[in-house]
Amino acid sequence: MNTWIKRSAWLLGVLALAGSLVACGGRDLSNQVAALDLGPGLPAAQPPQGLAFSVLKTSESNGAPEAFIVAGGSWLQYRHPVHTAVLVKHPQATFLFDTGLGRQVAQQFGANTWLDRQFFAYGPVNPVADQFEKAGWAIDSVKMIVPSHMHWDHISALPDFPDTQVWASATERDHARQGHAPGFLQSQFAGVKQWQDLNFKPLAYLGFAASLDLFGDGSVVLVPLAGHTAGQIGMFLNLPSGQRYFFTGDVTWTIEGLQWAADRSWLLRQLVHVDHDEPGNQRAIGHIHQIMQRFPELIVVPAHDENVFKRLPHFPQFKG
Fold first, then answer.
1. CATH superfamily of the domain spanning 2-309
2. Which residues in the chain come in under a pLDDT of 50?
3. Closest to 95 in 3D by CA, of 186, 222, 193, 190
């Protein structure tokens, strides 16, 4: 009995220490970036009438305590990060920003070890292609797919759109091709027929040194957010209504991480190699934190935050 008590006390001590590190490690990264010149206001945009967007939930993770997925989060709050795709209708082209989980995800996911399959487990899947079919949308109505990055949960549905252009930088494609499970699953992108190089221009945008105005009207602007992967990107979407959104991929998994300038928990980052360049990703957190403080009217959307998702238009409804 004494041995059991000693072992239990040791384990509780370790858990308490881990809990402390989870709560504190990675919190307050606002000083990771010097004060940025964000300009006098949000950049000008001339969004065309007819521009609108919708978000499709394709699945959700089995979940974890909030404190595990964002430093400073609650142990009592359980979070279920979602896997989503953003559908943008622009008069020049309709495109997807990320695809969520696709029709072949079960086979793709089989490349993982047993442990990774438990860690990254997900619930029932409702692929974008199935949601399109139900709503009477044709697959070929999507002209481009622009992944925020090429991790498995963001490009699983590429095989469901076999003839669609996929826009990604050479840096991100090389990172993915050299990568391995669980982050990168080669079966998801090996069959892509049409790659389009995503090349930024040296045009500053809200503190980013480069950007890409996708349609030349300021309505959809891509910016580099490298760190989580070598070539992760973010997307500013400026609607005719005047509302503005910033889709930030996996810089953080929750909006709290950007509001607090907090990384994923220390414990999670020790258990799983989450980021390609952790200091780089932390700088991205600090950058976005500054933007949010300067422009509180901007709606910031981390890819997996289930609470932010609830406040967005859900396919087949659109917002313009």
1. Ribonuclease Z/Hydroxyacylglutathione hydrolase-like (3.60.15.10)
2. 1-24
3. 222
